[in-house]
Amino acid sequence: MSERDDLRDAAGHGAIGGVAAFDRGAYGVGSSEIEPDAVGYRLSPISRLTRNFLMIAVFFSGWAVLRIGEINLTLSDVFLALVILVMLSRGEINKKPFGNLTAFWLIGLGLMLLGLLVSTIVNGSVERWLIVSAQYLFALLLVPMLLAGQPVSLTRILPPIFVFGIVISQLIGISAMALFENADTRDLLGDGFLTGNGRLGAMTGEPNPNGAMVAMALPMLIHSVRQGTIPLAIGVVCGLLLAWGLLSSGSFTGFVAATAALAVYLAISGLKPLVYTFAIGAMATGLFLASGLPLPEAFDARVVGALSTGNLDSAGTFTGRSRLIAEAWAMADDNIFIGLGVDQFREVSIYGAPVHHLHLLIWNEGGIIAFVGLFILLLTMLAIAFVTISKRRPEGAMILSVIVVFNVYTFSIPHMYSRLWILPVLLAICTCFARNASKGSYANEMADQR
Q: In angstroms, rounded to a whole number, what is the distance separating the alpha carbons of residues 132 and 417?
């Protein structure tokens, strides 16, 4: 990944099968998108290795089951860390991953961590702050710099790799549901892979995060089919597996997030994807209804029940989360300037659990300084999406749709420093905000924002 290495497209060097085919489909020889200076150069062994490591990390980014011990470190994290170390040693980290908007991103991240630090010094354990801040810095600082340090020709094939990782996760989970029960898989894959009440967590390890991964993968899939990085026939199969995985997760939040993401992408990206998606969806729905097959029990009980009756209690843990949210609102006035400190909400809560609402958790644990920091981070994400929409509508639509999913889950998840939450957002963003690999490429249009 030296200057000369950057002139060579990533096609043909992928560790995940089919990467070369993806790249040829979207940026084949003779197209206006391929880097004209690329022909004739080969990647160095270290560059090829780090790119393969990055693609492996992206493929497994939604597979939280592949965790190292009980700590929040996955197989994907290990490969990301290895790539970051190599890029740091070679001075290839992009210090302005979001162009001029990077300043706002850093201010937001700094304020959030500062508020949590001050509150933790007063009320909590600084050791715990060090652990949590390291997780946030890895996810929100180093990973963006890593991805934006790649040539755009590589970053544009990373979303399809992510999609295939989630598709294979659903395939494994759906197959396991047909063959096994919770007791059969619990010891090897954890209690959330197949839950006792018949919900699918797949390789993500829990049903609700699994619903989030599917919701983020769906607009990426449609965009990849549109761009030619995934062939239509393969895309239809992937879409069916993702849809069935989403239904099997029985996640009300996942269903709402996926619906919102698809609506945003199709509304912004243009008429053609809307027509194709509607036609394929209508055909698939018709075939399913004609088959007489039942919906997954978890989806029927939790999501259909909640939608048909308007009673969100049937959506599962909604009542418990609502009580935590009400408690957090009541506590917020006492934690305006100095919060409770990192991970202290669960200690003072009468329910003994963190509130599943990122905004309220950050406010209560870090005070208004941390909350303002979080708010700036979320606004910066939206600004990045709208800047991209103004220059390249399809990519901007994909970025915004994935950000919508992320924002939906900020209202149902506590701390979101696990890379599986932010990496899909960054993958979408860095299809455009990446290293300028050649003159005249779209990356240079985004460079105007730097």
A: 8
Q: Which amino acid is at 136?
A: Y
Give phi and psi for 74, each to the nearest 5.
-105, 170
* Nearest one of 192, 212, 138 to 410, comparing CA atoms: 212
Q: In terms of Cα–Cα distance, which of 340, 383, 392 is closest to 156?
A: 392
Look over the chain and give the mean of its residue pLDDT values, rounded to a whole number: 86
Q: Are the C-beta atoms of 26 and 227 separated by less than 8 Å?
A: yes
**314/324 Cα distance (integer angstroms):** 17
Q: How many other C-beta atoms lie within 10 A of the C-beta of residue 40?
A: 7
CB-based contacts of 42, cutoff 8 Å, min separation 6: 8
User: pLDDT for 310-325, tens place per residue?
Assistant: 666 666 666 678 899 9
Please, are residues 363 and 410 in contact by the beta-carbon 8 Å criterion?
A: no
Residue 72 near residue 135, CB atoms below 8 Å: yes
pLDDT in tens, 323-371: 999 999 999 999 999 999 999 999 999 999 999 999 999 999 999 999 9
Tell me the HSE value of 321 on the side-chain side, using a 13 A CA sphere.
19
**Predicted confidence band at 446 (pLDDT cuts at 50, 70, 90)?**
low
Mapped to the 3 state alphabet, what secondary structure does 318-361 carry?
Answer: HHHHHHHHHHHHHHHHHHCCCCCCCCCHHHHCCCCCCCCCHHHH
CA 168 – CA 156 distance, rounded (Å): 20
Q: Catalogue the E-assigned strands of 36-78.
A: none
- What pLDDT is recorded for position 71? 87
**pLDDT(21) > 80:** no
Q: Is the pLDDT score of 248 beyond 60?
A: yes
Domain count, the chain: 1
Q: What Å distances lie between residue 431 and 144, 230, 390, 402, CA to CA?
A: 12, 15, 15, 13
- Burial classification of residue 9, based on how many CB atoms lie within 10 Å of its CB (0-12 exposed, 13-18 middle, 19 or more buried): buried
Residue type, 134: A
pLDDT exceeds cutoff 50 at 223: yes
For residue 219, give its domain range. 5-447
